[in-house]
Specification:
Length: about 350
């Protein structure tokens, strides 16, 4: 098959020669069968200089061998297509699975770092598929000869070109090499349809999604957002409101509770102490507080003033509050919160 790749386009187009070849490829690393990965590696290495390779993988986790070959040994330019976090099928999954999109985002970010570190970002590009309401699971590969707008080779099958595909799963695909222009046009259209709904991903792209330094504030943001969703889902948002304290240069660690009788502007009960009314306070820590019940108007006035001073620097939080871009919760945080929420 690699000998066919070395032939010139004109020699492949001779009347006595078939215009299309199909080769089956199998990957069963568990049984020491690595036909597919060996071919793919050789393909990346042996394509002519200035060739172009389009590679699609819904779950982007290239093996180190593929990465090293693409960056260090391949003479081709690469345009790699993967799923945007919002097009990942595990987005908003419950429990640890909810962190899967963030994991792939991290892998993609590290790949771009490696590309840039080797000064190969002029020829290796990463794009993310993103289309409203769609998820992206496509895998494929299209190879274009130098100066040609139609691909002459494609891989069709099950692998994602990742660790799992190469080393753990049983995979099969076919390599199609063709000079048939109708088939080449169809293959080109196939790739264009996938890439049409994609945007170039850069280092700055992945900095938008946050990181570990903002993990704890983002976790509380996510919990608050889910609380509001639950309130709205039970149609109780007319009586249950959430406000956020915000004052320049201040942080907020206050806890407390004030209860007002119907029609009264002064509280008759307050709780004073250490709990935050959260999982950690209730189930894990040793907490103490006092309940104060009073009809003393001076004390009630002091308690009311205390609460007013806290609420003065707060704003109402709504569903729209948490949809603002600056309030974006990194995907890895969404996944982790489901696991560690009971430790907050």
């Amino acid at each position: 098959m690699l000998q066919i790749l070395d032939k010139t386009e004109s020699s492949l187009s001779e009347p006595t020669v078939s215009d299309t070849w199909i080769f089956p490829l199998v990957q069963m690393s568990t049984f020491s069968i690595n036909q597919d990965s060996r071919f793919t590696t050789r393909l990346f290495e042996s394509v002519p200089r200035d060739s172009k390779v389009k590679l699609a993988s819904g779950y982007f986790n290239l093996t180190e061998e593929y990465i090293d070959t693409i960056i260090d040994r391949s003479p081709a330019s690469f345009e790699i297509l993967t799923a945007h976090p919002e097009a990942n099928g595990f987005l908003r999954a419950s429990g640890p699975a909810g962190g899967i999109p963030a994991a792939y985002t991290h892998i993609a970010s590290k790949f771009l770092e490696k590309v840039a570190g080797k000064a190969q970002d002029f020829r290796i590009k990463l794009r993310e598929f993103r289309r409203q309401g769609w998820t992206f699971h496509t895998k494929g590969l299209w190879v274009f000869r130098p100066g040609n707008t139609l691909p002459f080779l494609t891989l069709v099958g099950s692998p994602n070109f990742g660790y799992r595909s190469v080393y753990r799963d049983l995979e099969s695909q076919i390599a199609v090499i063709t000079t048939n222009q109708d088939l080449q046009s169809s293959l080109s259209e196939e790739a264009e349809n996938l890439y049409r709904d994609s945007q170039l991903a850069t280092k700055e792209t992945y900095e938008q999604w946050g990181g570990p330094a903002g993990g704890i504030p983002a976790a509380y943001t996510h919990i608050a957002s889910k609380f509001l969703e639950k309130v709205a889902g039970k149609a109780q948002d007319f009586r249950i409101k959430l406000r956020e304290f915000r004052r320049q240069g201040w942080t907020f660690h206050t806890k407390g509770l004030w209860v007002f009788r119907p029609g009264n502007t002064l509280p008759f009960l307050t709780l004073v102490g250490s709990p935050n009314f959260g999982y950690r306070s209730v189930y894990r820590d040793l907490e103490s507080q006092i309940a104060v019940i009073t009809t003393n108007q001076d004390l009630q006035s002091s308690l009311s003033e205390e609460a007013e001073n806290l609420y003065r620097d707060s704003q109402l939080a709504t569903k729209e509050t948490y949809e603002q871009r600056e309030r974006y919760v990194p995907l890895w945080v969404r996944g982790v919160v489901g696991v560690v929420k009971h430790y907050f």
